[in-house]
Design brief:
By secondary structure, the protein is α/β, with parallel strands linked by helices. It contains 15 helices and 26 strands. The protein folds into two domains: about 180 residues, Glutaconate Coenzyme A-transferase (3-Layer(aba) Sandwich); about 240 residues, Acetyl-CoA hydrolase/transferase C-terminal domain (Glutaconate Coenzyme A-transferase, 3-Layer(aba) Sandwich), CATH 3.40.1080. It is globular and about 75 Å long.
């Protein structure tokens, strides 16, 4: 390693406590997405609560462990106002406790928002891998908006964690020591791992089998977050499909397995041929180790992975994402249960649009046909109209396939009466008669329809 880079490193080395003291009242901070969120810095900043006022902190996908301290200690938002670009389980809990807000965005536009004149950013902080021989820190499994934020922020602080894998190749995947302001040598806590004992529902198994039927040799995959994509990944691993590719927002454990078993080769992709393209990763330590210094991986910023034109340039693009509710007008809600915030827009819209641009491409929005409410009542997820306060994530104009455990419905190009008919066909049988009555009342039912 160059003595120049080592000296720069030493000159910029700072403790988490001293780094936190750089924050001033009224500042806007950004933390990196998911596994890139800093831990030691956040703990040190939380300890300064009573010294600061009106500090705004943007995060993205807060994970269960470690839990960020800044939103926990200030429920009145007098000192820290925390917002997230995407909601997972912990974001949702913090939101329910009035400790976290949501910042709506389409992921492919997030970097443009950060880089715009109307968005100010005083300090950016990210957990990264150790510096390499050439003076670069890898953003590792968290590259969604990292470089854009480094360029935009007035002050850039990196928190080094030896457990962060170094992920080469792609675009905007690292930053040089000369381009940052401070380095924290962190406490090297293990990276968060997705629990492996999550129960798989019968509905998820049924939908995974339906989706498997839609896969072809040379398909290019995007799998979203949740039990269904992982279940499908396991089915694919035991299939006889050949030469699959991966172009995805999130890299998951199932993708490691698919490559190891020779099902994913990326041979026929038109972008990053021979490589797995992704923007961030969430999985287990085995996948993080697999990614480390692996030339197979192409770590990209979200502006690239989520660009519908880039997505659509790959033939047979198959995009699979979960949703919460669909109405008979085919509006899709993936973010809320009424007014209660549950998730985020993420890249769902990007991949729905991108898959449609792909030659032979398809996008599937999936949901179990029913759920059980707090009273123990069974309710339909296919409804006449979205619940009051329900957020439209994917507009009906963009929807391609909707999937439940009862089948799949391709809605693209269909008039309202046909959409209603197809959706009712895949609703739970116990709700179909009532849905027909409501469709008729709303004048989107044709008398000759058959269910």
């Amino acid at each position: 390693m160059s003595n120049t880079y080592l000296q720069l490193y030493r000159d910029k080395l700072i403790t988490a406590e001293k780094a936190a003291r750089l924050v001033q009242s009224g500042d806007t901070l950004m933390y990196a997405t998911f596994l890139g969120r800093p831990d030691d810095f956040d703990i040190a900043l939380a300890q300064r609560r009573d010294e600061l006022k009106d500090v705004k902190i943007f995060m993205c996908g807060v994970l269960d462990e470690p839990v960020p301290q800044t939103p926990l200690i200030d429920p009145l938002h007098e000192h820290f106002t925390c917002s997230s670009w995407f909601f997972g389980g912990m974001d949702r809990k913090l939101h329910d406790q009035n400790r976290m807000f949501y910042c709506p965005c389409i992921f492919t536009q997030l970097q443009d928002i950060i880089g715009s004149d109307f968005f100010t950013l005083d300090i950016y902080v990210q957990q990264v891998s150790p510096m390499d021989d050439y003076g670069f820190f890898s953003f590792g499994p968290a590259n969604t908006y990292s470089l854009e934020s480094c360029y935009k922020a007035n002050t850039v602080i990196l928190e080094v964690n030896e457990n962060v894998p170094r992920v080469p190749g792609g675009s905007e995947d690292s930053i040089h020591i000369s381009m940052i302001d401070y380095v924290i040598e962190g406490s090297n806590k293990p990276l968060y791992e997705i629990p492996q004992n999550v129960a798989i529902s019968d509905a998820d198994r049924a939908m995974a089998k339906i989706l498997l039927e839609e896969m072809e040799d040379r398909s290019c995959l995007q799998l979203g977050i949740g039990a269904l994509p992982n279940t499908l990944g396991d089915l694919l691993a035991h299939s006889d499909l050949k030469d699959l590719g991966i172009h995805t927002e999130m890299y998951a454990d199932s993708m490691t397995k698919l490559f190891d078993q020779g099902i994913v080769t990326n041979k026929y992709k038109r972008t990053d041929r021979g490589k797995i393209a992704f923007s961030f990763a969430l999985g287990t330590r085995g996948s993080y180790d697999f990614m480390n210094n692996n030339p197979l991986m192409a770590s990209h910023c979200g502006r690239f992975t989520n660009d519908p034109n880039v997505i659509g340039s790959n033939d047979k693009m198959v995009a699979i994402n979960n949703v919460l509710e669909v109405d008979l007008f085919s509006q899709v809600c993936s973010e809320s249960a009424g007014t209660r915030h549950v998730s985020g827009t993420g890249g769902q819209v990007d991949f729905v649009l991108g898959a449609f641009k792909s030659h032979g491409g398809k996008s599937f929005l999936c949901l179990a046909s029913t759920y059980e409410n707090k009273k123990g009542e069974i309710k339909s997820r296919i409804v006449p109209t979205l619940q009051p306060g329900g957020i439209v994530t994917t507009p009906r104009t963009a929807v391609d396939y909707i999937v439940t455990e009862f089948g799949k419905a391709r809605l693209k190009g269909c008039p309202t009466w046909r959409r209603a008919e197809l959706l009712i066909e895949i609703a739970h049988p116990m709700f179909r008669d009532e849905l027909i009555k409501e469709a008729d009342r709303m004048k989107i039912w044709r008398k000759t329809n058959k269910i």
